[in-house]
Amino acid sequence: MGSLEKGLFLACFREDVDDVKYYLDQGANMNIICSNGRTPFGAAAELGNVEILQLFLDRSKNKKKNKLKSSSDLKQGLNNSMAKANLGNISQPNLGYFVCTHNEQGSLDCSIDQGNIKLNKDDQGNNYEVCSDRDKSHSKLRDDGGEVMVSTLRKTAYDLATFNDPFVRRDPRFESKYNSVEVLHEDGELTPDGMDKLEWDKWDMEIPGKTSTVPIEDDDAWYYWYTEALLQTSSFLDKKPSSSDIDIEDQFGCRALHYATIEGHIDAVKLLINAGCKVNVGDADNLTPLHMAAARDTPEVVKLLIAAGANVHHKTIDRISPLHVSASRGLLNNVKLLIQAGAHINTLDSSDRTPLFMAVSRSHEDVVKYLLQQGAKVNLEEIHGYTPLYEAVWQKNTTVVKMLLDAGAKITQSHHLLHYAVLHRHKEMVSLLISAGSIINLRDENGDTPLIVAAKTHQTDIARLLLMNGASINSTSYVTGNTPLHEVIRNMSGGCHKFNQMFSILEEFNVDLEVESDAGYTSLCLALYKRFDEAAATLIRHGADVNHPHIHHLNLFTQLLLLGNRFLSELFIFAGYRFRDIQLSNEPTTPLERWMSELKINPMKLCDLCRIAVRTQFKSKIYEKVSALVLPSAIKTFLKLEDITCETNCV
Question: What are the angstrom distances between the C-alpha of 633 and each of 158, 605, 612, 623, 649?
Fold first, then answer.
């Protein structure tokens, strides 16, 4: 970038019209890419300065006219020269070239460009005359050892491909006995006049109709190909952009119209369109001006581009259409304009997402409503199999979910939408999905039902809602075998209060306290193992079996004694635990051990024995049955073991 273009670029950003005129008068090119990858013309369009843009466009028109005039003059001059040459019957010098190769029999083949070389053969097939337009004496016939040759240039094709680089290895295929033959010229020069300015064509490794004696390897073939590509690339990079082209790309592939539309400069867009800027060209990501206008709340620009012939179906490299862009940004007016212009309402991007899916994923309710009214399909799945309804549940948007369900959206049970609604703690969404037909006891990929998920997260209100709608209270996870009650105990972060709330709901719907997990734990075993004393006490009072085999196998009661936990020890014993089989120390050291030793050798009180008998009879129904009895509250409290508390048993 020259200093003129740099000054022009800065003048555009300052919106200094006088400076812009000055730099243009000095010959600055408005299409030169500056160090930031932008052009002065693009900068003016981005700022929306109509005066500067008009100045650029006027200069562009003038340069185009001058270019056409000079081209016409040059053509006329060439025609006049050719006419004079024909009238004078003057032969034009031939600045063409030829390349000579030899076959196995020593015969000579010539490829000729822009010249006339005439070869005659004798009866034996030997060449005996070579002529060119330039001068018949420029090339002479010479016979060495019976082999007839015109010339073999010292520069082989390999030399041309490597630009005579002395550091590049020589290819042995081109080392032949003909490589030392000189090119004969009348003045003794090795290179004929005009050949030093020769621009070589691509090296052809195989001459059609001839059989080469030298094998061509694939690596060398690619070498020549890349050499030619580099030559062409170099010439392309050296070429400066035309200052009269109003559709020149900058480093980002953007044109002036792109910048004007993305900034919403209506007057600039009108000016550029009227000047002839292309409306259906993309940038580096194939974003057209219409894509960029669709991303902004400028429906006037969208309308201008559509009227100018912008393709509403054009897609980016990710197959994103302008309708995708407007729908994802919630631009309802743009969406309406695009659909009225014929945009496909169910068009898919590279992830198979529709405009409806994009609008749902961003919770644009007004756009979703309009697309549904226009007939958008509600059950199309994207590349991962998810539907707009799935996305709406994830976005916790009950309004959109209702609209989709009313429009005919189907619940895909394998998406586990009810699980996600429970996980999001969205009671209204749970109720909506249950009413729409979600399977309430369906297990997810973790083997959990929605009720188990609610139990894990201590959601009492959602758990009650699920149970009221038919959720199985004793259903187990097929991974762990845990019931909702197991999960409430295992996830004890909610504390005693949360546990009691959840347990009261589960008990109301007849929870089974003796269901074993895959590890063999009942709910009481798990509470003891997790040392969740409040949960263990609640379970014992409500009739959990204190003599379950797993309690004996794991020595869970013995651990209570070792921990000095008299509260749970008393609950165990007065709930009917068979403690007399336990081996105690002959010399008890703690108060709990001394109490157990005395209890073991002395008979229990009659009231305690009666309580054990009543509880054994009612089992897990003890609370329900005792509460229904017409007894004094003190007796009810006694039978429920509520007289034994942690505070009265601290040792």
Answer: 111, 20, 18, 13, 22
Distances (CA, A) of 259 to 37, 39, 75, 253, 572: 13, 11, 39, 11, 80
Question: Of 1.25.40.20, 3.40.50.800, 3.30.70.20, 1.20.58.90, which CATH number belongs to 256-443?
Answer: 1.25.40.20
∠ CA 318-324-328 to the nearest 5 degrees? 115
User: CA 3, CA 503: separation in Å to the nearest integer?
Assistant: 81
Per-residue model confidence as pLDDT tens digits over 413-457? 999 999 999 999 999 999 999 999 999 999 999 999 999 999 999
Tokens of 127: 């060449």
Contacts 24+ apart (CB under 8 A), 211-215: 211/103, 211/104, 213/103, 213/104, 214/173, 214/174, 215/173
481, burial (CB in 10 Å: exposed 0-12, middle 13-18, buried 19+): middle
pLDDT band of residue 281 (cuts 50, 70, 90) is very high
pTM over 0.70: no
Read off the amino acid at residue 156: T
DSSP 13: H
What secondary structure letter does DSSP report for 577?
-
Q: What is the pLDDT of residues 346-359, one digit of tens each?
A: 999 999 999 999 99
Could you tell me if 593 and 584 are in contact, meaning their C-beta atoms sit under 8 angstroms apart?
A: yes
* 3-state SS assignment for residue 305: helix
Annotated domain spans of the chain: 97-197, 256-443, 513-649
